[in-house]
Amino acid sequence: MATEEETETVSPLDNVMEDIRQELVRRVAADDRDLNRDIYDALEDE
Predict the structure, then answer these.
(1) Mean pLDDT over residues 29-34, rounded?
(2) Taking a C-beta distance cutoff of 8 angstroms, is the pair 33, 40 a contact?
(3) Closest CA to 29 of 40, 45, 18, 14
């Protein structure tokens, strides 16, 4: 039985979109940390 290898080509647009996604995740995480700083600080003090 022959199997066909799936190869996915990555375009420059895919690379840019991935960079944007990573930056958005980083910003959302940073904003979450800032908004909930008192919770994070309390957890560190335990």
Answers:
(1) 92
(2) yes
(3) 40
How many residues in the chain?
46
Residue 32: the pLDDT is 93
Q: Find where tokens 């375009």 sit.
A: 11
Helix (H) or strand (E) holding 3: none
> What is the Cα–Cα distance from 38 to 27, expressed in whole angstroms?
19
The tokens describing 27, both together, are 């910003």
Task: pLDDT band for 27, please (50, 70, 90 cuts).
Answer: very high
